[in-house]
Amino acid sequence: MKKRFARIGAIVCLAGALAACTPTYRNHGYMPLQEDLQNLVVGVDTRDTVNDVIGPPSSAGMLDRGDYYYVRSRVKEVGMYRPEVIERQVLAISFAPNDTIANIETFSLADGNIVPLTRRVTDSSVVGNGFLRQILGNFGNIDPGTFF
Length: 148
Fold this sequence. Notes:
single chain
Protein backbone atom coordinates (compact mmCIF):
# COMPACT_ATOMS: atom_id res chain seq x y z
CA MET A 1 0.00 0.00 0.00
CA LYS A 2 2.82 2.43 0.90
CA LYS A 3 4.66 1.55 -2.31
CA ARG A 4 1.57 2.38 -4.31
CA PHE A 5 1.26 5.86 -2.72
CA ALA A 6 4.98 6.47 -3.22
CA ARG A 7 4.70 5.48 -6.87
CA ILE A 8 1.66 7.73 -7.41
CA GLY A 9 3.46 10.58 -5.64
CA ALA A 10 6.50 10.14 -7.85
CA ILE A 11 4.35 10.14 -10.98
CA VAL A 12 2.55 13.32 -9.88
CA CYS A 13 5.90 15.05 -9.13
CA LEU A 14 7.31 13.99 -12.52
CA ALA A 15 4.18 15.24 -14.31
CA GLY A 16 4.42 18.58 -12.45
CA ALA A 17 8.10 18.94 -13.36
CA LEU A 18 7.36 18.24 -17.03
CA ALA A 19 4.44 20.69 -17.03
CA ALA A 20 6.67 23.42 -15.58
CA CYS A 21 9.07 23.04 -18.50
CA THR A 22 6.35 23.46 -21.11
CA PRO A 23 6.72 26.81 -22.90
CA THR A 24 3.89 29.32 -22.60
CA TYR A 25 3.31 32.14 -25.05
CA ARG A 26 1.85 35.59 -24.37
CA ASN A 27 0.69 38.07 -26.98
CA HIS A 28 0.78 41.82 -26.30
CA GLY A 29 -0.42 44.75 -28.35
CA TYR A 30 -2.39 45.20 -31.54
CA MET A 31 -1.36 45.00 -35.18
CA PRO A 32 -3.92 45.94 -37.87
CA LEU A 33 -4.71 43.41 -40.57
CA GLN A 34 -2.91 43.73 -43.91
CA GLU A 35 -6.26 44.01 -45.72
CA ASP A 36 -7.16 47.06 -43.63
CA LEU A 37 -3.77 48.67 -44.32
CA GLN A 38 -4.32 48.31 -48.05
CA ASN A 39 -7.42 50.52 -47.71
CA LEU A 40 -5.22 53.44 -46.60
CA VAL A 41 -3.83 55.67 -49.36
CA VAL A 42 -0.63 57.66 -48.74
CA GLY A 43 -1.13 61.38 -49.39
CA VAL A 44 -4.94 61.09 -49.44
CA ASP A 45 -6.20 59.62 -46.17
CA THR A 46 -6.05 61.64 -42.95
CA ARG A 47 -5.53 60.93 -39.27
CA ASP A 48 -9.30 60.59 -38.77
CA THR A 49 -9.51 58.06 -41.60
CA VAL A 50 -6.76 55.98 -39.98
CA ASN A 51 -8.70 56.02 -36.70
CA ASP A 52 -11.84 54.83 -38.49
CA VAL A 53 -10.21 52.14 -40.66
CA ILE A 54 -7.70 50.47 -38.32
CA GLY A 55 -8.46 52.02 -34.94
CA PRO A 56 -6.52 54.29 -32.61
CA PRO A 57 -2.84 53.49 -32.03
CA SER A 58 -1.37 51.79 -29.00
CA SER A 59 1.10 54.67 -28.78
CA ALA A 60 1.65 57.94 -30.56
CA GLY A 61 4.57 60.30 -31.08
CA MET A 62 5.82 62.72 -28.46
CA LEU A 63 3.84 65.66 -29.76
CA ASP A 64 0.07 66.08 -29.62
CA ARG A 65 -0.29 65.48 -33.35
CA GLY A 66 2.58 62.97 -33.61
CA ASP A 67 2.94 59.85 -35.69
CA TYR A 68 1.06 56.62 -34.92
CA TYR A 69 2.76 53.43 -33.74
CA TYR A 70 1.09 50.03 -33.53
CA VAL A 71 3.16 47.44 -31.66
CA ARG A 72 2.58 43.70 -31.28
CA SER A 73 4.90 41.33 -29.37
CA ARG A 74 4.94 37.60 -28.72
CA VAL A 75 6.81 36.44 -25.60
CA LYS A 76 7.91 32.89 -24.80
CA GLU A 77 8.28 31.77 -21.17
CA VAL A 78 9.83 28.45 -20.16
CA GLY A 79 9.82 27.52 -16.48
CA MET A 80 12.16 29.62 -14.38
CA TYR A 81 14.04 31.15 -17.30
CA ARG A 82 13.82 34.79 -18.33
CA PRO A 83 10.99 35.55 -20.80
CA GLU A 84 12.18 35.88 -24.39
CA VAL A 85 10.61 38.11 -27.03
CA ILE A 86 10.40 35.87 -30.08
CA GLU A 87 8.40 38.14 -32.37
CA ARG A 88 7.79 41.88 -32.52
CA GLN A 89 6.07 43.91 -35.21
CA VAL A 90 5.90 47.70 -35.32
CA LEU A 91 3.73 49.63 -37.75
CA ALA A 92 4.67 53.31 -38.03
CA ILE A 93 2.32 55.72 -39.77
CA SER A 94 3.76 59.20 -40.21
CA PHE A 95 1.73 62.25 -41.13
CA ALA A 96 2.49 65.31 -43.24
CA PRO A 97 1.91 68.85 -41.91
CA ASN A 98 -1.51 68.92 -43.66
CA ASP A 99 -2.51 65.83 -41.54
CA THR A 100 -2.50 63.35 -44.45
CA ILE A 101 -0.54 60.10 -44.37
CA ALA A 102 3.09 60.70 -45.39
CA ASN A 103 4.45 57.15 -44.99
CA ILE A 104 3.50 53.68 -43.75
CA GLU A 105 6.39 51.49 -42.56
CA THR A 106 6.54 48.05 -40.95
CA PHE A 107 9.43 46.86 -38.79
CA SER A 108 10.20 43.51 -37.20
CA LEU A 109 12.40 42.33 -34.34
CA ALA A 110 15.28 41.86 -36.83
CA ASP A 111 15.14 45.58 -37.70
CA GLY A 112 15.40 46.73 -34.09
CA ASN A 113 18.33 48.08 -32.14
CA ILE A 114 18.83 47.93 -28.39
CA VAL A 115 18.32 51.41 -26.96
CA PRO A 116 19.08 52.17 -23.31
CA LEU A 117 16.09 54.09 -21.97
CA THR A 118 17.93 55.47 -18.95
CA ARG A 119 21.56 55.64 -18.14
CA ARG A 120 22.74 57.05 -14.86
CA VAL A 121 26.38 56.92 -13.91
CA THR A 122 27.56 58.18 -10.54
CA ASP A 123 31.26 58.54 -9.87
CA SER A 124 32.25 57.11 -6.53
CA SER A 125 34.93 59.00 -4.66
CA VAL A 126 35.81 55.94 -2.58
CA VAL A 127 37.01 53.72 -5.41
CA GLY A 128 40.57 52.63 -4.73
CA ASN A 129 40.51 53.92 -1.15
CA GLY A 130 40.81 51.39 1.64
CA PHE A 131 38.85 51.47 4.88
CA LEU A 132 41.60 53.15 6.93
CA ARG A 133 42.26 55.78 4.23
CA GLN A 134 38.55 56.70 4.25
CA ILE A 135 38.48 56.98 8.07
CA LEU A 136 41.73 58.94 8.33
CA GLY A 137 40.77 61.16 5.40
CA ASN A 138 37.79 62.54 7.37
CA PHE A 139 39.86 63.95 10.27
CA GLY A 140 40.62 67.18 8.43
CA ASN A 141 36.96 67.69 7.47
CA ILE A 142 35.61 68.16 10.99
CA ASP A 143 34.02 71.58 11.63
CA PRO A 144 33.97 72.50 15.35
CA GLY A 145 31.07 74.91 14.71
CA THR A 146 28.71 72.00 14.08
CA PHE A 147 29.24 70.68 17.64
CA PHE A 148 27.97 73.83 19.37
